[in-house]
Amino acid sequence: MPRYHRTLLINDMHCGHLLGLTPPDWHRNDCTSWQIPAWHFYQSIVEQIGPVDDLIVNGDAIDGPGKKETTSHLTTDIGEQCRMAEQIISLPKADRIHIVKGTGFHTDGDTAYEDILAGAFGLKAHDELRLEVYGRKIHVRHVVGRSDIPYGQQTQMQKELINDILQAEFEDYQSADILLRAHDHYCFKVETADSRRGFMRIVYIAPALQMRGPRQSSFTRKLRTWKYDFGISLIEIDQKSREAFIRPFLMPIKHYARREYLCLTEEQK
Ligand SMILES: [Fe+2]
Ligand SMILES: [Fe+2]
Q: Which residue from 16, 51, 108, 213 could staple onto 257, CB 3.0 to 4.6 Å apart?
């Protein structure tokens, strides 16, 4: 019977933001048109995936105090944002939970807010995380450079891979062969053959759990990227072959962010 080690990967929920993933207790009347479908999507995919060995929360679980503006926030109360994130993290059935810190802009203030969140589970939040599963070395960090050039994402991802190999050489540790990143709110995977280890080295940027629209905010006005992905990811590693399979579960953007034209001329009406 083949055994797969299963890890659920979630990130960028941005709890407290109007477009962040919001548990039903915090839904607001004028936002339910996207808060309800987002929550249903999350709930149904978590149910579909079922129990997992590990759950990794890779940063930006909360949106923070709104350092630049607060017009796009449901609440800027950090305690409340953490309680929302706690409900989201508690939904999947996982043997272990790992919480990795996100972007300082969202998650650091007079204290590291993700430490408060991790504390609710009796854990400590990690700056970065290294895990090993059936000999596969996994490195988890929130931040990775982004590119909005249609063919530029892979450059940033290969940089992560090569940097870890170089750093491993200089600092005398074993480099990772599965690098998990978040932060960019788009989903990409790059694989490079490693003949020495006998498998593909993988760099994966996971989709976010903050929506792109429909509500305009300074965040969505600024983010003019051609690529945006909302969803969660499942990583399965085969005990026998040590092969790693990473699958994103994505919500189609057009289901919640419509792009309609305001028709100004009679004949088109
Ligand atoms: Fe984010
Ligand atoms: Fe981030």
A: 213
Q: Return the CATH architecture of domain 4-142+206-268.
A: 4-Layer Sandwich (3.60)
- Span from the CA of 82 to the centroid of ligand 1 (angstroms): 15
CA 105 / ligand 2 centre spacing (Å): 8
Mark the residues whose beta carbon lies below 5 A from ion ligand 2. Answer: 60, 102-103, 183
Identify the helix (H) or strand (E) that includes residue 89: helix 78-90
**Secondary structure letter of residue 25 according to DSSP:** G
At residue 141, does pLDDT exceed 60? Answer: yes
Q: What pTM does this model have?
A: 0.95
Residues 6+ apart with CB under 8 A from 155: 147
pLDDT tens-place string over residues 211-249: 987 776 776 677 778 899 999 999 999 999 999 999 999
3-state SS record for 204-220: EECCECECCCCCCCHHH
**Could you tell me the distance, in angstroms and rounded to a whole number, from the CA of residue 49 to the centre of ligand 1?**
23
Q: Distance from the CA of 58 to the center of ligand 2, in angstroms? A: 9
Ligand nearest to the CA of 229: 1
Domain regions of the chain by residue span: 4-142+206-268
- Report how far ligand 1's centroid is from the alpha carbon of 167 (Å): 26
Helix (H) or strand (E) holding 158: helix 153-171
pLDDT in tens, 45-60: 999 999 999 999 999 9
